[in-house]
Write a structure and sequence with these properties.
It contains 13 helices and 25 strands. With about 550 residues, the protein is an alpha/beta fold. It folds into three domains: about 250 residues, 3-Layer(aba) Sandwich (Rossmann fold); about 160 residues, Beta Barrel (Ribosomal Protein L25, Chain P), CATH 2.40.240; about 120 residues, Ribosomal Protein L25, Chain P (Beta Barrel). Strands 10-23-24-25-21-22-11 form a seven-stranded mixed sheet, with helices on one face. A seven-stranded mixed sheet has the order 19-16-17-18-12-15-20, with no helix packed on it. Strand 1, helix 2 and strand 2 form a beta-alpha-beta unit. Helix 2 crosses helix 11, helix 7 packs across helix 8 and helix 11 crosses helix 12. The structure holds one RNA strand of 74 nucleotides. It is found in: Cytoplasm. It comes from Pedobacter psychroterrae. Pfam families: tRNA-synt_1c, tRNA-synt_1c_C, tRNA-synt_1c_C2.
Amino acid sequence: MSEERSLNFIEEIIENDLNSGKYATLITRFPPEPNGYLHIGHAKAICLNFGLTKKYGGYTNLRFDDTNPVTEKTEYVNSQQEDIKWLGFQWKNELYTSDYFDTLYDYAVDLIKKDLAYVDHSTAEEIAALKGTPTEPGIGSTYRNRSVEENLDLFSRMKNGEFEDGICTLRAKIDMASPNMLMRDPILYRIKHAAHHRTGDKWCIYPMYDFAHGQSDSMETITHSICTLEYVSHRELYDWLIEKLGIFPSKQYEFARLNLSYTVMSKRKLLQLVNEDFVSGWNDPRMPTISGLRRRGYTPESIREFCDRIGIAKRENLIELGLLEFCVREHLNKTATRVMAVLDPIKLVITNYQKDQTEILIGENNPEAEDKGGTREIPFSNELWIEREDFMEEPAKKWFRLAPGSMVRLKHAYIVKCEDFKKDAEGNVTEIHCTYIPDTKSGADTSGINVKGTIHWVSRQHAKNAEIRLYDRLFTVESPDAEEGDFKDYLNPNSIEVIKQAYIEPYMSNASKDIRYQFIRKGYYCLDDDSTPELLIFNRTVSLKDAWAKTNK
RNA sequence: UGCCCGAUAGUAUAAAGGUAGUACAACGGUUUUUGGUACCGUUUGUCUAGGUUCGAAUCCUGGUCGGGCAACCA
């Protein structure tokens, strides 16, 4: 490790705790609620929690925070596990908050016995009304002074199913005048006659997040419980419960969640996009979910690198989408197999190349790789497909692709000179006629001719057809959450473009989902899940940087 | 009008009282059989007003701005 990276504030805390001997082993946890798919924001938390124990030793638990049976599903548990593994991390223990329901119940009884909790028969509305506001203190419920015996009895009857949903709750008895709203007698348990994805019908009362999270951390002797900023004000309650219960003192630390430009990151909003069919599902390649990014062609390495680069701090942030794209380009540049594909084809005829002749050319698969990634055979003939945008009837300044009279190199092949072109009635160019220069063959060029432009191509008679899906940002504005009105008003209508008729090298008939491809001069692509041997379908992960498009703007 | 967090180039993130640095972006250049990659260079910053100090991004005080807090969600 030669590169010295400075520590983030959590690493500083951990190093201090480890050096001072406060803890011998670092233990963290990643605690998703199984009520949706994991997204890139979760990836930040995953990389943080797992990365810390990878760096300092110790281990990380995966704990599903499943205290609300009505929103949670096993489908989500499975997808979340798959995503974490795919990102490259392995948890020590697979745990569920629901594993602790018995202990949590005992903790509640303990609190009641200490006269620190009571059963409240107020309605939700009454509780809200008596809660006060941030600027005015709340008022104690009339049930606040029930005796310990009565509370014990009522709480066990709650557990036994004697009450309907919403009839009563168990509340902590703390301070209705606290400046921290969460300390105004927070609800600890509520009644929900709902089947739980793991405990089934065993329980009809479920603990609230605040009565489950800290104690679960404590039971697992989590040394550093890391969460996002919105839990800062929960920390006082977290500490209060641990202290009153006299259990292992896990400590909570908060960092700023990830916000990514041109997307939304809340599970609620992502679920809405899925449910209302704005996208094809949680793993739509335009989604910022881990599964969406995976299908889009992002690699775990690139996502980890991204999480590393964005850093960990406490200030609100909005990361530019460009950084994520940089990270995936950086990784794919080193690893992707280069092939040629023509997305918007126009016919190029080489008039001095023999009609029935086919020549096999050799192409390096990856000039960035040590062994050049091996080579492949590329058939060449007198009729090719080239990219429509690589020809300009009236060339712009500094244009060094094809134009009447100009020369370009055909990648891996010969230099050709444009002699003529044809147009249809509407004025669209339909065909380009060139002559090739025989002694300019790639790797054996003895001509001494130098051309500035190199373009990609596919032999017309050998080309495979492919469908190509181009993606763009999901939203038209940087921060859809911050805009007026509904975030869906800002969906990008052009976030997907499907090209039905693209041509690709015959080599790609053996394309694999495990291999990432660079379509030379175009971008990085991967085989989509919808692809079949009969119809190859590719997703554009990200385009290549295009300096020409920029200067031309 | 309460409490809590925060504020360093366009975006992120360092500097633990002592030269404001790094990455991405932008701009310019070199190399190049991908207008890609690689490499080199340039521009741009401590929210504000006081105070402490030989010296403040850092410590203190006031202000400003941004975010969070009044779910039987997590």
